[in-house]
Each structure stands twice: as structure tokens, then as C-alpha cells.
Amino acid sequence: MATDQTMHVPPSLSARVVGSFAYLTVRDRLPTILTKVVDTIHRNKNKFFEEYGEVGIQAEKQAISLLSKLRNELQTDKPVLALTDGLPDTDSWNQYLERQQRLQGDQEPVSWFKSPWLYVECYMYRRIHEALLLNPPISDFDVFNEGKTQSFTESSQAVMSLCTYLEGIKNNIDELSKNSLFEHFSKLMQGSLWGNKCDLSISAGQENSQKTSPLDSLYSLLPFILVDDTKRVWSALISAQRPRESGKTTADRVDIVLDNAGFELVTDLVLADFLVSSGLARQIHFHGKSIPWFVSDVTAKDFQWTIQQAMATNHKWVSKCGVQWQRYLKEGMWCYHDHPFWTQPHEFCDMAADAPDLYTTLQGADLVLFKGDLNYRKLTGDRDWEHTVSFETALRGFGPAPLCSLRTLKANIQVGLQPGQGEKLTSQDPSWMTSGKYAVIQFHNPKSE
Question: What CA–CA distances, in Å, run from 310 to 100, 178, 255, 306, 322?
């Protein structure tokens, strides 16, 4: 693999370039999200009073004051400040700030518009968490919970359709040929891929549910998948199959690094259920976020809530799925992790050095699926790569296991395209990298390099 010495590593995307997507995000979308967070806290004022009395009202006022200050810092391009909340990850964040300052030099401080977009966007969500954490008793309030639950409840038709499809497969799964299994695998991978369109951080918290099942329109969506490595992902899974104690021949473990709660999470759970029930994998490890993050990302509470909701749904196949998912968790065939590294600003090529325990965990997987746009930005370092640079090059040595990105494009970075493909897309549709209309299923296998 090329080292950084022999390979030109482009700069990180930032809001320095007026009019760029990063600039518009920092100028418009991030302040809008902060305004919605303030509104949400204020709307829950009575709830805080009922639960905590006058202390709850004081906490609400102080949290809003800190968030208003944060919004002002952002909009006026003030220096990024060190965190003060004393959480286990506080030192790591403050060290990262020092690292950014060293990279940027002494001429100017690390600030909202002049420093890497990936860093300042992650930092904003960590500061939102800090504003609540410093104000007990409302420290545990998830400011994004309403949007996440709404995304699930308003996608009920699509959820029913998806669970009905899954149960149909499972009814005769033992009779399916390898080719039929691959067809279902491919469909559910695409279902999980297009489920990623439902991202509340991109719509700045606007309602963004899925009214119909993406499985109904997969054929018409195929032209919008710019890179489709499904067959390579399938081959990696099949080549990892070993005889197990149960007598079944299966791959040992697939890890899914989750993105959004709501409908997207259901598409991930359905895919995970299929992998286990078809014997393609023995166990699934899910990786979520330890704090509310990027408006709609999955936390442990969201994960458990979604399964409980499915169990309680008045629909035969949805509730059957929910019961089965709870059983998988109870029996240890599924498990959920939330390492703090996922809510830090690091590129994933830093993981082996900065979170070696997590890197070692991922090395135990036969396949790691990375969901969504933020994971893609971290996989590729959110850098201004040429579109024809290979996915492997952009990963810069990150490869704990065979890995695949399932991502609808919502940020102006995309690698691994054919020569001329990016230029053609730009001439046809100037917003192709940021509209969520296009997608990739992009695979890298460090074991075969």
C-alpha cells in the first residue's frame, strides 16, 4: 500500500471555500439545527418542571444559554474552545483540538469556517451534549428523540412491507438455491442502502420518513448506484464460511456500523435477520453512538426502542420480527456496542493508533458494513480526493477486516469512480454528490491485497 510519503493526500474539506457545500453547511444548516435544538428544549420546559420542579426550569434556561452562545461562536467564526465537562472522552477531544492547531500553524486559531468541516461538525454535536451534561437534572434528555421516533412511526407502511418480505423468505429459506439466496441478499443490501436516504441531519431535522418500501422500486433505482460491489461482498461472505459446532456452515460474524434511527435502522435489522436466519453469518455485532449524534443517529436507547415498537406493532409480521430480534439479543446472536470513538472527529485511518481496542474488535469480523455518509467521510478522511482515486487509497491503510460502505451521497466526496464518470455526472446533475439521489456499495478487502 502507498504510504503518505509516496501518496499525495489532499486537504480536508472545509468552509474556507465560499459557496462550497461545506461552507453552506456551516453557514446555514448547522445554525438551523442548533435553533431547532433550542426550540425542542424550550418546548419541553413544562415537562422538566413537572419532573424536577424549579431546578428543571433553571437547567433548561442554562442549557439554552450555552447553546445560544455556541450558535453565536459558530456564526461569527470564533475559535473552537476546549471542552470542560470532564467526561471520559473530554481529554481526547481537547488533544484533538491541539492536534488541529499544530496542523493549522500559529497564524490563525482553529475556528468554525477555517478548520476541517468534519471536525467542526462533530464538535458541534459534542458541544450540544456538553450543554445538557453541565445542567443536571436534564443531562440525559435526547434533544433529537422526537424526530427519530417520528421517522419510525411515519414509515409504518414501509416497515410492514419490509417485514412481510423477510418473513416470506424465511418461510422457505432451507429450500433456496445459492442463486436465490444471492438475489435476496442483493435486494436487502439495496434496501439497507436506500434506507440511508432518511437522514435528519441533512434535512436539518425536517420530517424525512419513508412512506413506501424501497424494495418496491429497487429496479428503477439501479442506475443511481454509481459503484456496486455487491458480488464482491457476497464472495467475501461465502469464502468466510466454515463448519460450526451447530453443524451449520456459516461465516462467523458480520459487524454493522449503524447510521440513522427510524426506518433506516429497520432496514439494517431486516438485513441482519436475513444474514443469521439464512446461515450466511452466525452472529451480528451492531455499533451505535454513545450520545445523541448528527440528529438521527442510533443510540442504545433508540436501538432497544425500535425493537420494542416492532414487538408491540399490531401487524403479524412486524411483531414477529420484533420478537425474533429480541430473542437474537437475549441469546447473544446479536449484540450492540457503542465505543466512544464513533462520536469523535477522527478519520478511521487513525483508529488503530487512537482506539486500538475498537480496531481489534473489528478485526474479529468476517465483514464490516459501514452505513451512511458520515462513516464514508470518516473512511475517506473527508478529503478532496479525485473521483478516480481508488477506495483502498482513500482508506489510507484502514482495513481491520473486509469492509463495505453502503452510502447515499450527501457530501461532496466520492472516490472509486471510472475515468470521466464524475465529470459526466457533474454536467448532468451539478448536485449529484449532495442530493442523496445517488449511492454506492463500495467494498475493500485488505486480506486480498
Answer: 44, 30, 22, 6, 5
Q: Locate 163 and state its grid cell.
A: 417485514
Residue 120 to residues 58, 94, 124, 143, 382, Cα–Cα distance (Å): 28, 13, 6, 19, 12
CA distance 58 to 39: 16
With CA atoms as reference, report the closest residue to 135 among 86, 63, 51. 63
Kindly list the domain boundaries of the chain, sorted by start residue: 21-134, 146-444
Q: Which residue has the cell 450543554?
A: 131
Assigned fold of 21-134: Transcription Elongation Factor S-II; Chain A (1.20.930)
**Predicted confidence (pLDDT) per residue in 394-414, tens digit:** 999 999 999 999 999 999 999
Peptide bond into 137 cis (omega under 30): yes
Q: Note the helical H segments in 331-397.
A: 351-354, 356-363, 372-379, 391-395
The span from the CA of 438 to the CA of 435, in Å, is 7
Specify the fold of 146-444. Answer: Rossmann fold (3.40.50)
Using CA atoms, how far apart are residues 148 and 129, in angstroms rounded to an integer?
A: 17
Q: How far apart are CA 79 and CA 66, in angstroms?
A: 16
Whether the full predicted model's pTM is greater than 0.85, yes or no, is yes
CB 348 within 8 A of CB 378: yes
What are the pLDDT digits (tens) for 284-328?
999 999 999 999 999 999 999 999 999 999 999 999 999 999 999
